[in-house]
Amino acid sequence: xxxxxxxxxxxxxxxxxxxxxxxxxxxxxxxxxxxxxxxxxxxxxxxxxxxxxxxxxxxxxxxxxxxxxxxxxxxxxxxxxxxxxxxxxxxxxxxxxxxxxxxxxxxxxxxxxxxxxxxxxxxxxxxxxxxxxxxxxxxxxxxxxxxxxxxxxxxxxxxxxxxxxxxxxxxxxxxxxxxxxxxxxxxxxxxxxxxxxxxxxxxxxxxxxxxxxxxxxxxxxxxxxxxxxxxxxxxxxxxxxxxxxxxxxxxxxxxxxxxxxxxxxxxxxxxxxxxxxxxxxxxxxxxxxxxxxxxxxxxxxxxxxxxxxxxxxxxxxxxxxxxxxxxxxxxxxxxxxxxxxxxxxxxxxxxxxxxxxxxxxxxxxxxxxxxxxxxxxxxx
Amino acid sequence: xxxxxxxxxxxxxxxxxxxxxxxxxxxxxxxxxxxxxxxxxxxxxxxxxxxxxxxxxxxxxxxxxxxxxxxxxxxxxxxxxxxxxxxxxxxxxxxxxxxxxxxxxxxxxxxxxxxxxxxxxxxxxxxxxxxxxxxxxxxxxxxxxxxxxxxxxxxxxxxxxxxxxxxxxxxxxxxxxxxxxxxxxxxxxxxxxxxxxxxxxxxxxxxxxxxxxxxxxxxxxxxx
Lengths: 380, 224
Description:
The structure holds two protein chains of two kinds. By secondary structure, chain A is mainly alpha-helical. Helix content of chain A is 65%, strand content 0%. Chain B is mostly helical. Chain B contains ten helices and two strands; from the N terminus they run αααααααααββα. The chains are: A mainly alpha, B mainly alpha.
């Protein structure tokens, strides 16, 4: 390792103080800390010693995302070949899926990190790791045939408006990945919805119909997918959101490491189930009759609940607030799905909406707590 | 009176014209008149017509109010101002209906709403009531132009990126049903950005203009 360290130090010499490229120090620093463990130690005084920093937290989330990502890649191939009636060998599917998905991932990371580094150099601060997770989430919540340049534009918008305009990592009020999706959804509707975008190359093959389950329900037709398919994820949809099983593995990792809040996840499930039950009781249209527990299996519901709603920056911070925040997300997600057929993906809207209200929720939870304590003080 | 001695385009008077374009822009600095800036900037043509209409109303009402400023009783000055502005707006509306019916239909209620445009009332209250007609005229030109500048900027953005046109002329090429039949950028697979046609994007564009302006003009950044 010493050899590598020396080699890297040589490379970064011109970036050090007084060097030729001093201005670009933040860029090289970010690569440095990504490759090597930083040597900064604390000196003197009392410190809480904990190995967890932002980078470790982000890497944990990425590990949690891997099952969903790999299944997503497999499912891209599976949907494509099964619709064509060809053999669906696992390896073929994986290779086809990787061929389709990796360019999206590369574009997302390339464009996003370039903007992050540009901002860091311009403002002379260190590059933050916040984009590591967003950059992976963004391609996972897009349809597979989404053109790469549109993806790039969405990423630019998400990082610029969704994040840097508010002051960078940790300051954004909306989840940047969802900003990217919302932007793409409203900007390029034909590429983001309908029955031709969810299966790879569907637009060039007439026989293929890759309508998502929510799309079918909104159109009033019956779905042909079994509940097991919905749970395991062998259904058309955005890349990473189809398999509830893979997402649950991710959820287990997040909860076990304490990175994601189980309160928000459970709250979202409860809210969604409650709203689903209410609509089942009313049962006016196809979407209302869709069994409440199946609502939780399809669309981006599970993915949103586990990876989007639990974003510690844009979500609620207080413990009681997390419950309220989660329950309302589930509530609104199902409500938007059912009431507005044009936006079958209610989860995105619901989370963005609750992002706005998260600080308000926190404010009232804190205010309520202060009031309770004051009363206790009075009584004593 | 000081006005008599002052040159027509003294430094002070020039500032009346140039300040509202940048340092004291009615939209990007004072954040007035936002509703119309959001509503009619989908295309360049209505934005230009709207700008001209507001320019006319601001200038004319500024001059009129300034001329009679010593006759208006303080207590009912708002009503008097509103009457003047409303008559001018009706004038504009009728002219538009007569000579530019299509645009007038497109602008619909927003011509009438110039009456409530904060820029107009704001200039009357803040400037015309206290200054002579020539200065008020310059102030009206400056503020109307400041409003027009932002409106046109936003509209250029939105029409170019949202429908690939400017003044209804296809700038980025022709978009046909298939890529093969399209020309220009569309032949490369480019698509119009539908979000640009929705009003949130106008707000974001104004926000971006404010961002750029303040990073160039640091004295505008508020201290907290």
